[in-house]
Every structure is written in structure tokens, then in C-alpha cells.
Amino acid sequence: PPPPPPPKKFNFNAASFSFNPAASSFNPAGAKSVAPPPPPPPPPVPPPPPPPTPSPAPAVEAAPAEDPVPEPVPEPVSEPIPEPVSEPAVEEVEEVTEKLEEVAISTPVPVAAEEAPADPVEDVAAVAVPVVVEEPPPPVDEAAVMKAYEALLADDPRDHYNIVFIGHIDAGKSTLAGQILFLTGGVDKRTIEKYEREAKEKNREGWYMAYIMDTNEEERVKGITVEVGRAHFETEKKRYTVLDAPGHKNYVPNMIQGACQADVAILVISARKGEFETGFERGGQTREHAQLAKTLGVSKLIVAVNKLDCPSVCLPGGKWDKARFDQIVTGLTPFLRSCGYNIKKEVTFLPLAALYGHNIKDVVAKDNCEWYDGNSLFEILDGMEPVERNPLAPFRMPIVDKWKDMGTVIMGKSENGFVRVGDVLQIMPNKLRVKVEGVYRDEKETNAALSGENLRLRISGAEETDISPGFVLSSIKNPVPVVMQFEAQLVIVELLEHNPIFTVGYKSILHIHTAVEECEVTKLVSEIDPKTKEQKRAKYIKSGGICVCRISIEKSVCMETFAELSALGRFTLRDEGRTIAIGKVMKLPKIH
Fold first, then answer.
1. Cys staple from 514: which of 150, 258, 398, 427, with CB 3.0 to 4.6 Å?
2. Mind listing the pLDDT tens digit for each residue in 375-430?
């Protein structure tokens, strides 16, 4: 009986053994080393004590219990056994403890969250607010949105279109836009007379109508539109927003900004001798603008052949020349078809004279043009089929501009969904939660707005410095994807003379909706045969080719696939001030 207690005492006091239960690898080793010594001592010790003397045995038992332990060999043997075992055990224990510490680092995360609820109260509150914010949209979506949508239609059932005027410089875009505003009552006669006097003083008598749109003094002196002019007019059937884009090649980025907000493009062609040829030849803006308009989502194209009343092309008696009109139509048709336009369904050719307002509001008189039997410009616009707008679709609005005015104000065209005052939305890619405090449409404040409208939204929750053009205001429940690479189908329009091959490593400027970023081609997936549509591998692509490639961007950009939302899935590649390719987004990374 006395020998067994000492090993137990030693085992309890030993730090290594107290830890052994946690270490699975150490238990068996420790058990083997400690278990064998106790059995041998008990058998030899019980036989000697009973024979000598029964009475002194109990008294001696207490003392000899200590004496025999040091004297006999088993005790020294028992001491060295734990020491060598304990040394390796300590190393193993250290390894085990390190592992356990690693596990402890990961496991105590919930404990830390429980222990420190006092410090992150603010964080918890901050997290709780968005959770509360996210709850309102789902239940309100169906009932409240449809109710607001019906109320909006009841208030003004007319459809809305955004019209952009594009074309070569001096084709008459600003004059046409100004004449439209004058004919619809947007500008009174006194203002027109004032502009006429100003133009006369500058020896620019034919420019007075353009002064309605070109409000900047620099634009008036040079006769060149720089910024995108913006105005509104209405007919009995529809509401329109006019976007007057610059025609000079130096301001193509501004033209892209205007065209990406448009549903309809009016391509203004000057019929004056030499001007059509200049605009249509290589390097002229007629070509580039037509390509860009199709790329940027313009569904309808009206080709307005202007200046047919000019003495250089009109017939004797001031009659418009049909031969000149047919020559322009014949020259443009194959080019527009190559851009992707369906000539029969999407393109309308129209003769007019912008300076005097012929064939704009009313059909041109037979005295001037006896061979034209079609409709006037307003009749063509009013006759276009209405665009379907789904109010329950996730909201998307690429931001064109922002400024401070009694809070933060952002401007853009809503491409999808429905927005109301009080909606909580998210600005991507920086995930800013904002609340819509006011909705302005056509310079008037409203409670809600449909997709397709040019809007100004007053928001709270974000500073003007936090927002940049190219960001997208989207719904929280279904945010717009944000990516740094994507797969696209490209049509190579015209490469630069000194860099005539499009291949991996080609760098250019990406224009997608209102965003502008540097990009690089990282992989050529395949080349597409224009006739058979078959795909084959290729190392490079030349001008006029079609390919599927992977493009990486320096900074994250919001976009959708072309199939999901075409307005956010079309893009243009430009290099050294020229459009080199147009394309559509085919695939996005799964995790974005």
C-alpha cells in the first residue's frame, strides 16, 4: 500500500502530467511509463513486513514508508524515469500548446465578440442601421412601387425620349436644336431678335439660332460647341430632352457623355458642297459619331440632311435638289449597315433646312421640295414606338455629374428601375448608402421617376467629394456588378497607322456608360469569321476584324453583361483621340 501513493503524488504535482489529458499523443506514452513501476513495488513489499513483527509493523509503517523509499533501488529508478520522460514530454507539450494556441486564435473569435460588446457598441449600431435600411425595400417593392408608378402615369402618361444631335462640325446641330426650341415655345421671339443682333455684330449672321444652345461666350465667338447643351421640349404625345453634342474631334469624350444618355440620335449631315464629303471621309466626325451612337445604346437614328436650301446645292428658284439628297443617302447606307443599324427598322432619312425651320414642325412646302412625301421631324419623333419600362427592375443610374446645392446633387440618366423620394440606394463601387431626398425631372420636382429619364437627385449620406462621374447609383438588394476584368466581343474599327495590330498587351482608353478608365487586353480568346460566325484561335487581329478577348482595367468599374442590361454592357475603346474598337460585355467574373 505505501509505494503506490508516492507515484500518484508525483503525477498530480507534475505539470507535464496535468497537461497530458489534453494531449492525445502524450497520454499513451505517459500511461505506459507510470503504470509499470507501481505494479512491481507492491508484490515485493507486502511479504517482508508481516513475518518479522506484527505490533511494530504499524509504527514502523509510517517511518519505514519514508526510509525504504529512498534506500531501495526502485525509488532512484522511479525518479530518473519521470525526468527523461518529462524532458521530451515538455517539447511535445510545447508543440501541442503552440497548436492549441493557433486553434485558440481562431476559436475565441466569438468569445472576443462576446467579451467586448461594450467597445464596439458604435460598430454594432452602425451595422444595425443598414440592416434596418435593407428591410424596407422588399416588402414595399410590389405594392408601393406599383402604386407610385400608376400615380406617375396618371399624372403624365406621355412617354419620354432623350435626343442627342450628332454629326460633323458646322453641320447645323446647334441651329437645329435651337430652332426646335423656338418652334415649341421654349424661346420667345424677343430673345431670338437679341441673338440675331449679337450674331450680326460678330459677322456671324447665320449662327443666331445656335446661340440658344451655345450659351458660353467662347462657344459663340468660335462657333464651336464644347459642352453638351441640354434643353427640354414637349409635344402633345411625348416629352423630350435635347442633348446638343459637340462635333469637333477634340471634344469626342464630351460627345460620348451626351450620347450615352440618349435613346434617339439625330445625325445631322450638311448637304452643302464639299461639307458632306469632308465629314464622311476618313477622320471626319460623321463616321465616328454614327459608330459611337450605336455602341452607346442609341436604338433609333434619324439622318437629317440639312442645308438643302444652300445656294451651292439647290436648284434654280430655291428648290431642293433630289439628286444631292439621294447621293448622301446612297453614300451613308452601307456604312450605317456596317455599324450594326437595321436600315429599314432603325434608320430614317429626312431632308430639312434648320435655319428657317423647314420640315421640322410642319412638312416642307411643295414649292421648296416637291419630291418629298414623308413626315416632318416632329411627326417622326411622335410616331416612334414607346419603350417598355419595368418599374420593378433593380435601379441603375450612371452618374454624369455632381455638385453641391442644399446638399449633394447627382445627375444622370436612369437606365433601369424606378426611383422615389425616400428610397435608400447604394453608390457603387464604393458602396455608399444614400437616401434620395428629392427627384427633379425636366427642371421640375416630382415624387418619382421612371427609367429613361434624365434626372437630378438630391441625396443625403454622401459628400460631393465621395462621388465621381462613372459611379453608378443602384439598388441595395441587387447592386450593380463591380469588376476589374471581363470578357468581351469586339469589332476593330480602325487601328492606328503606327500600331496596326491588335493583340495581347494592347493598351487603350475604355469608355463604358459614363466611366472612363485605362485598360489592357490580357487574352485573345478567339477570332470570329464575319461571314460564317465561326470562332478560331488567333494571335492578333487587324482592322475590320471581330474577336472575343479578355480585358483588364486599372480600377474597378461598374458594368453589366450586354444580355442583362445593354446600356451598361456596351463600350468603346479609344486610343490617341480615335475610336479603334466598339464592343459588348459578354462575361463577368463569378465573384465580383
1. 398
2. 999 999 999 888 778 888 899 999 999 999 888 999 998 999 999 999 999 999 99
* Beta bridge partners of residue 549, listed in sequence order: 488, 524
Spatial CA neighbour of 264 closest among 237, 239, 298, 305: 298
Coil, strand or helix at 153? helix
Task: For 167-299, list the strands marked E by DSSP.
Answer: 229-234, 238-244, 264-270
Ranges under pLDDT 50 in the chain: 8-10, 16-19, 26-37, 44-93, 96-97, 99-138, 140
Asked if residue 29 lies in contact with residue 85, where contact means CB atoms within 8 angstroms, the answer is: yes
N residues, the chain: 592
Secondary structure class of 518 (helix, strand, coil): strand
Cell of 130: 443598414
Which helix (DSSP H) or strand (DSSP E) does residue 239 occupy? Answer: strand 238-244
Q: How far is CA 477 from CA 125, 182, 572, in A?
A: 20, 45, 29
Pairing of strands 238-244, 396-404: unpaired
C-beta separation of 389 from 246 below 8 A: no
Q: Summarize pLDDT for 449-459 with one digit per residue, the tens.
A: 988 888 999 99
| The pLDDT of residue 80 | 46
Residue 552: phi and psi, rounded to 5, are -110, 145
N-terminal to C-terminal alpha carbon distance within the chain? 73
Q: What is the pLDDT of residue 592?
A: 64
Tell me which residue of 377, 382, 369 sits closest to 350, measured CA to CA.
377
Question: What one-character DSSP code corresponds to residue 354?
Answer: T
Backbone phi and psi for residue 13, each to the nearest 5 degrees, phi listed first:
-80, -25
Residue linked to cell 497607322: 497
Residue type (1 letter), 589: P
- Contact yes or no for 451/394 (Cβ under 8 A): no
Q: Which three cell numbers stand for residue 570?
A: 456596351
Helix-strand-coil split of the chain, %, nearest 5: 35, 25, 40
Q: Exposure of 258 by Cβ count < 10 A (0-12 exposed, 13-18 middle, 19+ buried)? A: buried
Radius of gyration of the chain (CA): 41
Cβ-Cβ contacts under 8 Å for 331 (sequence gap 6 or more):
276, 280
Q: Which residues pair with 503 in a beta bridge?
A: 540
Q: Which amino acid is at 62?
A: A
